[in-house]
Amino acid sequence: LLSNTNSNETLFLNDFLIIKGIKKITGWKILSVFNIKVINENASKLSKTIDDTLQREQQGLELIVQSINHCKMNIAKCDKIIKSCRVQSLPIYQAKRNAFHDNLVIWNTLGHIQMASIEMKGFIKQFPSGALGIGEQQNIIKSAYVSIYETSKRLIDGTGDIMKFLSSNFVSYDSSSLKLVRKELTTFRENNKDKLILVRNKIAAHRDSDVCEQIGTIEGLHLSEAVSLITEYGRIINKLGVVTSPLKALGIKRLEATK
Disulfide: which of 111, 150, 202, 228 matches 217 by Cβ 3.0-4.6 Å? Predict the structure, then answer.
């Protein structure tokens, strides 16, 4: 489902953060030409790595959308038949409809994971640009924090629905890995909730009535903290993609059982 980002991205990002900090303090004076060249090359490699990964993930998202639409189409067909079929046939088509609905839950959750992964990599890709001013960086951070707040809640809810699907249809399935990653995601959201809500409610989705409160919140947005938060969330998302991807096969088994 998800293509894990190259582990070297973390190293490239560290170089990027170091150079941003040194530039702010010294105006490049203590950096050699060689060091600047190496860091710039790393930033270029990072951008290409993310571009390649984003392309693969976008292609994966398109396939997920096709599967979602396939489920929706078959649910609509079942609904139409259920309205006019004989009583004897009703349980058959109700079972088919329920099976397609379960598959829709799976594919929809996979889609949310994929979209969140694409968003996080898109944010990270924008940061190394030397053309970004402080205001532009803060706008990206605001968008990233709101996205993390909203998508993490959606993913917790979606994986909760999947747990219900497993307990109802595949009791013997080992869901321990899914439970662990879901718990990690829940802990991540809980640990960062105050910061995410602050940004969302004061300067993003809503605006504080006190201008000074808004400005103070904006000035409290730091690039290094944002990159750390985004990369940590992205790591959890990738793990979630790995543990939920096998559920596609269970969805097929669920449909086969209604034939």
Answer: 202
**Residue 191: count of CB within 10 angstroms of its CB:** 10
Contact assessment for residue 128 and residue 46, using Cβ atoms and an 8 Å cutoff: yes
DSSP state of 173: S
CB 120 within 8 A of CB 237: yes
Q: What is the helix, strand, coil percentage profile of the chain, to 5?
A: 85, 0, 15
The kind and range of the H/E element at 248 are helix 247-256
The closest alpha carbon to 202, from 220, 217, 190, belongs to: 217
Return the DSSP state at 89: G
Q: CA-CA distances (angstroms) from residue 108 to 68, 101, 157, 239?
A: 7, 10, 11, 17
The Cα diameter of the chain in Å comes to 83
What is the band of 47 on the pLDDT scale with cuts at 50, 70, 90? low
Predicted confidence (pLDDT) per residue in 50-67, tens digit: 777 788 888 899 999 999
Q: What is the pLDDT of residues 120-171, one digit of tens each?
A: 988 888 776 555 677 788 888 888 999 999 999 999 999 999 999 999 999 9
Q: Region 18-25: what's the mean pLDDT?
A: 40
- Backbone angle region of 180, left / alpha / beta, with phi > 0 → left and psi within -120 to 50 → alpha: alpha
